[in-house]
TrEMBL record:
The protein, known as: 4-diphosphocytidyl-2-C-methyl-D-erythritol kinase
Function summary: Catalyzes the phosphorylation of the position 2 hydroxy group of 4-diphosphocytidyl-2C-methyl-D-erythritol.
Native organism: Alicyclobacillus dauci
UniProt keyword Nucleotide-binding present: yes
Recorded family membership: Belongs to the GHMP kinase family. IspE subfamily.
Pathway in which the depicted protein is active: Isoprenoid biosynthesis; isopentenyl diphosphate biosynthesis via DXP pathway; isopentenyl diphosphate from 1-deoxy-D-xylulose 5-phosphate: step 3/6
Matches recorded under HAMAP family: IspE
Signal peptide start and end residues: none
One protein family per Pfam: GHMP_kinases_N
Gene: ispE
Length: 289
């Protein structure tokens, strides 16, 4: 049996440039891995079946699950005639804008590569990942990257900046497709913010980074789901810190330069809400468990 860790991500920037002819949107964003992870256990099966078990209720374990899709893509690309038992221990909130499902799928691809000794490079695995979902190629590598196109074109950002991240997850579902479809022409940009964020990360400018966080989907999510906007106002009042949204939401986050400051915010929020997580940037996620 083999273990792969699947790290969540947040968006430090998310700019939308416009709608593409294929129906997707052209994006330019900075994605950052954080130290909140699912555990993906893989074991060979010799009956050709792909079997998924998970600790999480209410998520599919059939072909609708990205882990199962990832295993099928891997076996198709490698020509391996085998099966796998996947045991998924969920810690990342589901449908939260944190790429939990995408990261799980990426972990399956990396893990199967190790389990079967196929020695595919991360670049080759990322090409497989692009068939599964827009965020999956980033999750194959983790760390920090500018993601462009649908999210599959990656430029990695090496940096040593350590920021603490406080996540606040409202227990509700937000439809990513609905959010993108509700974008208006005024939400599209011609100048992106990713290079400015890249510079701040590499300079380890912990004062500038929270001010540079920007998400073009936030206006739409707050408009369609006013309870998320109300929660953001509440968090900002309690923490006296700028509040941001990851992906299409609904998860909110605050950044802090020190563990002590993050602890103060965490303790204040734990008194008024349930799903609060204290974590931090992961700049070089380890491959494997």
């Amino acid at each position: 049996m083999l273990l792969e860790r699947a790290y969540a991500k947040i968006n430090l920037t998310l700019d939308v440039l416009g709608r593409r002819p294929d129906g997707y949107h052209e994006v330019d964003m900075v994605m950052q891995s954080i130290d909140l992870s699912d555990l993906v256990w893989l074991d060979k099966r010799y009956d050709g079946r792909i079997v998924l078990e998970t600790s999480a209720a209410h998520i599919p374990t059939d072909d609708r699950n990205l882990c199962v899709q990832a295993a099928k893509v891997f076996f198709r690309h490698t020509g391996i005639q085998s099966g796998v038992h996947i045991n998924l221990e969920k810690n990342i909130p589901v449908a939260a804008g944190l790429a939990g499902g995408s990261s799980d799928a990426a972990a399956v691809l990396r893990g199967l590569n190790r389990l079967f000794g196929t020695e595919r490079s991360l670049g080759e695995i990322a090409e497989m990942a692009a068939e599964i979902g827009s965020d999956v190629p980033f999750c194959v590598y983790g760390g920090t990257a500018i993601a462009q196109g649908r999210g599959e074109r990656l430029t990695h950002i090496p940096h040593q900046c350590q920021m603490q991240v406080l996540l606040i997850h409202p227990r509700m579902f937000v439809s990513t497709g609905e959010i993108y479809q509700a974008l208006e022409p005024g939400d599209f940009v011609s100048h992106t913010t990713s290079l400015v964020m890249k510079e701040a990360l590499q300079k380890q400018d912990v004062d500038a980074i929270p001010k540079l966080v920007a998400n073009r989907l936030q206006r739409v999510t707050f408009s369609l789901y006013p309870e998320v906007a109300q929660l953001a106002d509440k968090v900002e009042t309690v923490t006296r810190t700028r509040v941001h949204m990851s992906g299409s939401g609904p998860t909110l986050f605050c950044l802090a330069p020190t563990v002590q400051q993050a602890n103060r915010m965490y303790n204040a929020l734990r008194g008024i809400m349930r799903d609060v997580y204290m974590t931090h940037f992961v700049t070089n996620p380890p491959v494997g468990g």
